[in-house]
Design a protein that fits this description.
Length: 105
């Protein structure tokens, strides 16, 4: 169950990061409210997952899901560049997430 909560927390991190970009510096109310709600939910689920997962593993996976997910959203929906170096960097983050999961048992 902790891994499920952690994955949902990571997905919510993608939501709040994307909404924050769309909030235009918190000058747009709707995206600003989505940012705040998703951020609170993401932190709350991360805290619940940390009850049984090691700190280093939980935090690394949470931030990794958010980083790679926000990177993908930026490319697919926001027109950001998908250069080979950026794709390699995202691949390395994913590799690190897999190794963290495998090391957690």
């Amino acid at each position: 169950m902790a891994w499920f909560l952690l994955i949902v927390a990571g997905l919510l991190e993608i939501v709040w990061a994307s909404a924050m970009k769309l909030s235009d510096g918190f000058s747009r109310l709707g995206p600003s409210l989505v940012t705040a709600a998703a951020m609170l939910a993401s932190f709350g689920l991360l805290a619940l997952a940390m009850r049984s997962l090691p700190l280093g593993t939980a935090y690394t996976v949470w931030t990794g899901i958010g980083a790679v997910g926000a990177f993908a959203v930026g490319i697919v929906w926001m027109g950001e560049a998908a250069s080979p170096m950026r794709l390699l960097a995202a691949g390395l983050i994913i590799s690190g997430l897999v190794l963290m999961k495998l090391s957690a048992g």
